[in-house]
Amino acid sequence: MPTRPQVLVLDDYEGGVSGSPHLAELADRVELTALREPVSQRQLARAVEGVPVVIAIRERTGFSAETLAHLRGVELLLQTGGHAYHVDVPAATREGIMVALGRGSTTPAPVIAELVIGLMIAWYRRLVPTGQAMRAGAWPATLGRLLHGRTLGVLGLGRHGVMVARLARAMGMRVLAWSTSMTPERAAAEQVEAAGFDDLLVRSDVVSIHLRLAPETTGLVGARELALMGPHSVLVNTSRGAIVDEAALVDALRSGTIEGAALDVFTQEPLPPDHPLRRLDNVLCTPHIGYTVDAAFDDFALTSAAQLRAYLDHRLDPALVLNPAVAWERPGQWGGLLADC
């Protein structure tokens, strides 16, 4: 029997988690390995043989019931994020795998907001086509536009939406905000104007999405909503791809219903090579880089190390686990929850 449990970090393309000093502090307690490339289900099944703890970086690997059935021997799936949209939690429970969330995350809110501002500037100052023309040897005559004085509509005034609103106001933009829990007091505190959903879409030059993916937000922005935005508006989505009806968005971009879109998230990731969003001239795409910054990955590693240490000490907080009953029904060999029995 091994004296230390094996821990596998999945999809650590950048090496920002497995190479962190936070996890290195546990070198005397665990045997840490990492997969730096995407793997197939068969490869994943081989990689987790004899591995009781898996650290998953965001939703880069989906954990369907079929995938989870191949993770024999896994006791704990540590998520580096505060959600598990991509994990079949009932199936994990059936397989005796606890799923813990990275709710202890302290990632600075600007991690998304800076990207949103960058995307807006890139769009209005035509940085991508201008840069491409320069590479081709041209000296393009380009007429950009200012963000100052324009109206930004923020859907969701949570930790990311708030920072986007603050940065936009600092740049001289008017900010409208909508959420299901919006109050006049909340809007006043952030010096933004609370607006109805349709009203925000009609009045905004740029609409930026900062909502959680849930049944009520899936497909929230569809053909009707895009039509309300109008032909001089830009949609920015750095939240979740499924919040936007992608087929309707492609139609709206092709027809000129809206001016353009800047997208960091997609319904299917990686975005298929032949997807129309890759080919449209009025789309600026980035490969889900909103969270791939040094500060965020350091935070992922810090949170994962703290939760791993707690698990090994039988002190993992049940409040961080989506299916804590697993710990009592099928106790782990290498660790457990606080006050488990």
UniProtKB/TrEMBL annotation:
Residues 27-290 form the D-isomer specific 2-hydroxyacid dehydrogenase catalytic domain. GO terms for molecular function: NAD binding; oxidoreductase activity, acting on the CH-OH group of donors, NAD or NADP as acceptor. Keywords: NAD, Oxidoreductase. Gene3D superfamilies: NAD(P)-binding Rossmann-like Domain (3.40.50.720). InterPro entries: D-2-hydroxyacid_DH, D-isomer_2_OHA_DH_cat_dom, D-isomer_DH_NAD-bd, NAD(P)-bd_dom_sf. Residues 117-290 form the D-isomer specific 2-hydroxyacid dehydrogenase NAD-binding domain. It comes from the Bacteria. CDD domains: PGDH_like_1. Pfam families: 2-Hacid_dh (PF00389), 2-Hacid_dh_C (PF02826). Belongs to the D-isomer specific 2-hydroxyacid dehydrogenase family. This is D-2-hydroxyacid dehydrogenase family protein.
